[in-house]
């Protein structure tokens, strides 16, 4: 079972770094099996466990953000979307009334 520390333990004050890039500390409790797996994977890539974990976490975070912010459409949906942009349907009476109300509100 793994978990990430959320700041419940007090962290000791750290002097500001000069010259080097500032860093933040991340702690996690992991099972011995996961630790063995991480160590083995890091060794295979010729990295330290810390470097391996940081790279893996960064990749996972970027993928999570991309999945949450990028809309991916099938080819058929892309074509339908493009067609709707290029040839929109005529406005409905309800839309025309809404536009008129908006114009009236903005002129006040």
TrEMBL record:
Family under the similarity heading: Belongs to the TacA antitoxin family.
One Pfam entry name: TacA1
Natural source organism: Extensimonas vulgaris
The keyword Repeat is assigned to this record: no
Location of region: Disordered: 1-22
Coiled-coil ranges (or none): none
NCBIfam families: YlcI_YnfO_N (NF041551)
InterPro entries given in the database record: Ribbon_hlx_hlx, TacA_1-like
UniProt name for this protein: Uncharacterized protein (DUF1778 family)
Alphabetical keyword list: Toxin-antitoxin system
Alphabetical GO biological process terms: regulation of DNA-templated transcription
Lineage summary: Bacteria, Pseudomonadati, Pseudomonadota, Betaproteobacteria, Burkholderiales
Keyword Membrane: no
Matching SUPFAM superfamilies: Ribbon-helix-helix
């Amino acid at each position: 079972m793994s978990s990430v520390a959320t700041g419940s333990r007090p962290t000791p004050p750290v002097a500001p770094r000069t010259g080097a890039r500032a860093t933040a500390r991340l702690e996690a409790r992991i099972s011995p099996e996961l630790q063995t797996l991480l160590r083995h994977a890091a060794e295979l890539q010729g990295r330290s466990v810390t470097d391996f974990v940081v790279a893996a976490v960064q990749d996972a975070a970027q993928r999570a953000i991309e999945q949450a912010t990028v809309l991916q459409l099938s080819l058929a949906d892309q074509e339908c979307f493009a067609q709707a942009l290029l040839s929109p349907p005529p406005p409905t009476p309800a839309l025309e009334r809404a536009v008129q109300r908006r114009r009236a509100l903005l002129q006040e």
